Amino acid sequence: MTGDKSMLSTRRAELVDAAVGASRALVAITARSLARDAGDVTLPQYRLLVVLVTRGPQRLGDVADSLDVNPSTATRMGDRLHRKGLITRRGRDDDRRVVELVITDEGRQLVERVMEHRRAEITEIVDDLSPDELATVAQGLQLFAAAAGETTGELESAS
């Protein structure tokens, strides 16, 4: 039994190390795509835009929760994106006290351009994998995304 626990612990550590390495690579790809397509939009601001693309209009508190930031941080991010014309604010008809953040067409187009460049760069990377390796990596990433509460294809279905 101790051997099983030890092996599981080793596999878990190997998986964590692999995920950290993959995460570094994916963040670097995103950073390059942002620099290319939206040099003045930060990664946290981009994440806010992605939340609005995938989930639709959101209250500021819900955005803060989604991004795991303080509401004041979400407010400042929203203010900057509003000044850039990437989001708007609107009141809700059913409760005028509630203000929602809404992505603009320009904001949606920016997210789509960044995603296109991310996909292109990731495609170049995975082109070097064999069909069996592609299937293994795809399955592993799908399992990981699901365990993290993420789903694949959200941007396509939201567009």
Overview of the structural elements:
- With about 160 residues, this protein is mainly alpha-helical.
- It has seven helices and three strands, in the order H-H-E-H-H-E-E-H-H-H.
- It is globular and about 60 Å long.
The rounded distance between the terminal residues' Cα atoms is 50 Å
Q: What does the average pLDDT come to?
A: 89
Over the alpha carbons, how many angstroms does the gyration radius reach? 19 Å
Could you estimate the helical fraction of the residues in percent?
A: over 70%
Extended strand count = 3
* Computed structural class: mainly alpha
What is the helix/strand order? Answer: HHEHHEEHHH
| Major beta-sheet overview | 3 strands, antiparallel
Task: Give unreliable regions as ranges.
Answer: none
Relative strand content: 5-15%
Describe the strand arrangement of the main beta sheet, using strand numbers. 1-3-2
Number of helices: 7
